[in-house]
Structure formats: C-alpha cells, structure tokens
User: Which sequence fits this backbone?
C-alpha cells in the first residue's frame, strides 16, 4: 500500500486518511493526561502510569517492534508526536523504537508489557548515565558500543543516581551488569539513527505546542488596551515561528517517509534523519526563544505549561547526536556523493 504526503498527513493512494482515528486516539490520551496533571508537575516529572495504561490497552506501545501490532514507523510517528505535544511523560520511543527492537535483534527476551528503556554507553564503563525512565522500566536494555559493534544485555535497573533533563523527564545513572551480554555486529549506527528519528518527531510535537501556546497567550494578554496579537512586531514573531516549525515539519516528515518506505537501515533513512536532526537543531532554539519572549516571565515558571514544550524540545535535539555532530555527518555525505546536486535535492 502506497502512502503519499498530502496536506501535512500521510494518506493512502485511495485518498483516505487511515491515520485519522489513530491521530484522534493519541491526541485524546495526550489531552487527558495533560488535563489530569495540571499543577502536579515536578522535577523530575513522574512517569504517567495512567497514560501508559491507556496506550498499552490501545495496543500503541509496540507499533514498530511487534509484527502483530499492525503498525509501523508512520503510525509510531503519529503517536510520538501527539504525546510530545501534550508533554505526556512516558518512555514510548525508548520502549518501542529502541529497546524492544534491539533486544529482538540480539535474540534476548523482554517483558511483553510494561515500559522498557535503553542505556547506551561504551565498552568497559561501570555505569551508564542519562538513562530515561529507569525507575519506571520493567527492564533495561544495556547497549555498550565498541565501534559499530554493540554488546547487548537485558537487566533490571540498578540505579545509582536520579536526575532529569531540562524538560523534567526522569534520567538516571545505572550500574552495568557483569555478564549476560550478546554481541550484535553493525547495529550501533542504526540505534543512533532510530533515537535521532524519534527525538525529531517528539521535538516537532513540542514545537507545535509552543506555537499554539504563544498564539493563545498573545490573543488573551492585553497591553495598552489591545491584545498583544494586535501589535505588528508580535504578528511578525508569530509568523516567523510558524514558518520555522513548517520547515522542521517538512524535514521530519521526509525522515518518517524514508523510514516507512526504505527501513531504518537504509541509506535513504540515514540521509533523511541526518537532515531532520540538523534542521530541528537550528529551528528549536529560534522557536523556543521567541515563545519565551512572547510569554515574558510567566513562560519560565514550573506552573506554566510552556516550559514542558520548550525545554523538552531543547533536550531532545541534543540526544542521539547533537546538531554539530549531525551537520558534520551531513557534510561528509555531501563530499562522498557522486552527484552533489542529486544529494542536495535528496536524490539518494
């Protein structure tokens, strides 16, 4: 079945949007989570067990890693973006796109239900830091890099330190198990690509929320007897934000399409995800700065929902390779291309 990009969504060749129901369902779960947790956010933010239960009951937690789910990368992208837009604190990307996939590739068993997470470090390290949602995970897939090779093990988390990223998502340091590792050749690059792909989609969802909040705030906030949105400078800022987000959306949807058609291990996905990571890395700081300028001091308080969108976006763009790392990678791809023009227009 062929999917083409029409009006910002993927539709089948018959013109029927098969993803409409999924988009609505994921949005409903996200909106419910956001409403129920107003005033209850903290640092670190707690894992949302209720939202995870809804996702699990709806069969949305293993869309790419379970062949029987009936889903794939396109469907996973819809759910990831919706949850990020509402700042739902669950490890969906870690569970489905990363941990379950890598465990299956290594031939290791993980629980069929419950959240998973992934811990990525280098061979020989006694601990791995920055592990997402380690305290909530039913199992951790540990991946230790040695060049393109990964040593992979599945373990229960032994947490030595608890923290969070800028957006309040829980991050922890865990001890590396002494044994139980399986060697997986050639998987390190795909693991990074999968993580970068997921973070681009999540960052896009967060940017959508930041623009939405900014539009609403400038319409409601009155200054000198007029709403802020009536001032030309504010209008220009909002228009610039929207344009930047659409640039990010185009790059991200190219990455989603490349993975859906060619797979995560393809050269097309490598190119598209790298481009998306570079574009998001440039767009996010611009949109985040503008959103906080429009909100003023209220936008940086824990009580306001803006920080959940902007700070998570800032955190996500630096994970699985920051902007500079992906920009250098894109430059090396361009230098190695047989036809530079084909490369520039995406003919890879």
Assistant:
């Amino acid at each position: 079945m062929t999917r083409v990009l029409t009006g910002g969504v993927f539709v089948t060749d018959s013109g029927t949007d098969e993803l409409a129901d999924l988009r609505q369902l994921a949005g409903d779960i996200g909106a419910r989570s956001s409403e129920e947790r107003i005033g209850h956010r903290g640092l670190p933010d707690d894992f949302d067990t209720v939202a995870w239960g809804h996702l699990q009951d709806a069969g949305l937690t293993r869309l790419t890693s379970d062949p029987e789910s009936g889903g794939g990368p396109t469907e996973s992208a819809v759910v990831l973006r919706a949850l990020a837009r509402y700042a739902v604190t669950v490890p969906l990307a870690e569970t489905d796109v990363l941990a379950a996939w890598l465990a299956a590739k290594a031939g290791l068993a993980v629980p069929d239900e419950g959240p998973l997470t992934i811990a990525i470090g280098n061979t020989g390290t006694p601990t791995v830091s920055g592990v997402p949602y380690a305290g909530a995970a039913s199992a951790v897939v540990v991946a230790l890099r040695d060049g393109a090779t990964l040593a992979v093990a599945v373990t229960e988390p032994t947490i030595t330190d608890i923290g969070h990223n800028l957006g309040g998502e829980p991050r922890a340091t865990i001890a590396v198990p002494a044994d139980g590792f399986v060697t997986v050749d050639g998987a390190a690059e795909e693991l990074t690509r999968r993580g970068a792909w997921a973070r681009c989609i999540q960052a896009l969802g967060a940017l959508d929320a930041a623009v939405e909040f900014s539009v609403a705030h400038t319409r409601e906030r009155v200054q000198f007897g007029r709403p802020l949105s009536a001032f030309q400078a504010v209008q220009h800022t909002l228009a610039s934000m929207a344009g930047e987000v659409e640039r990010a959306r185009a790059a991200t949807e190219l990455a989603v399409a490349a993975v859906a058609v060619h797979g995560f291990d393809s050269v097309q996905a490598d190119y598209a995800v790298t481009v998306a990571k570079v574009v998001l890395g440039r767009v996010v700081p611009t949109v985040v700065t503008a959103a906080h300028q429009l909100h003023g001091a209220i936008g940086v308080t824990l009580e306001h929902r803006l920080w959940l969108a902007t700070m998570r976006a800032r955190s996500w763009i630096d994970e699985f390779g920051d902007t500079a790392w992906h920009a250098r990678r894109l430059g090396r791809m361009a230098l190695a291309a047989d036809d530079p023009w084909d490369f520039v227009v995406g003919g890879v």
Q: What stands out?
A: The radius of gyration is 20 Å. The chain has three domains: 3-92, 102-184, 188-344. The longest helix spans residues 188-220. DSSP finds ten helices and eleven strands in the chain.
